[in-house]
Amino acid sequence: MAVAAAASSPDAWLDLERYPLDRLESAKGRALVARCREQLTAQGACELEGFLRPEATALMVGEAQALAGAAHQSAGRATPYLELPGAGWPEDHPRRSFAPYSLAALAYDQLPPESALCRLYEWDPLLDFVAACLGRERLFRYADPLGALNVAVMGDGDELEWHFDQTDFVVSLALRSSEAGGDFLYAPRIRREGDERYGDVARVLAGDGALVRRLPMRPGTLLLFEGRHSIHCVSAVRGATARLVGLLAYDTQPGTCASPVLQQARYGRVVRPPGETRAPTPGGRA
Q1: Do the Cβ atoms of 104 and 155 come closer than 8 Å?
Q2: Alpha-carbon 3 to chain mean position
Q3: Per residue in 213-253, pLDDT tens?
Q4: Dihedral sign (CA 209, 210, 212, 217)
Q5: What value, to the nearest 5°, has the Cα angle with vertex 138 and ends 140 and 275?
Q6: With contact defined as beta carbons under 8 Å apart, do 147 and 271 qualify?
Q7: Are 226 and 285 in contact (CB under 8 A)?
Q8: CATH homologous superfamily for 3-267?
Q9: d(CA 101, CA 109)
């Protein structure tokens, strides 16, 4: 079946024989969830290569490319902890290490509701699958009008510095790789509650690759990543072909929205959800 002819049916875009999201209670579905949980526990990341069918990946790339010119470009320098360091840290401490970042982002409200990526994000079986893999009883889609779903657009020279996320997990969908660079690098579970392991973090920042894993961009791959405890970066993109990644935002509580400061930095504007009642939450880049 051609994807374009089934644009309202996300299950036509996925390899459901390999990844039975529509049958999670089956033996094959339970085995898939168990395998994903094992990978997350051991490695802090779980890759589902070939999650999207090639024609569905091409459809989403075409939709994103048509909008890429409207993406907001942000750039600057940041610490691995995505916060300004306190005055008491020594000059050579990881919390005082600044590195450059640069990327553009298409916000949720820039993506047409009928687009394939929006329909997939709003498809309940995907939400249930992510919750099961992360061991959460229930997840909610972000209420953020800008950050619930976005496309990271990284062109020649763009990169993401080494950093920890300020959220427990990130769900991403690889759409298109760049001509060179753009690899996802991470040090699995390099810190844990009560043990920051600053010495190991400093080693990574200094270029020691002994603790680092590399995940090349493979279009069509779904990645579940627990970035609060695994420092990570995206290597500099090279070439005229922009790297495209869909970022799907979920939380364990309803009504989650990034702070106005983060919205302004990432999207160049601030849009709050109607009737916002929860305090804004911090966010991180992936």
Answers
A1: yes
A2: 24
A3: 999 999 999 999 999 999 999 999 999 999 999 999 999 99
A4: positive
A5: 30
A6: no
A7: no
A8: q2cbj1_9rhob like domain (2.60.120.620)
A9: 24
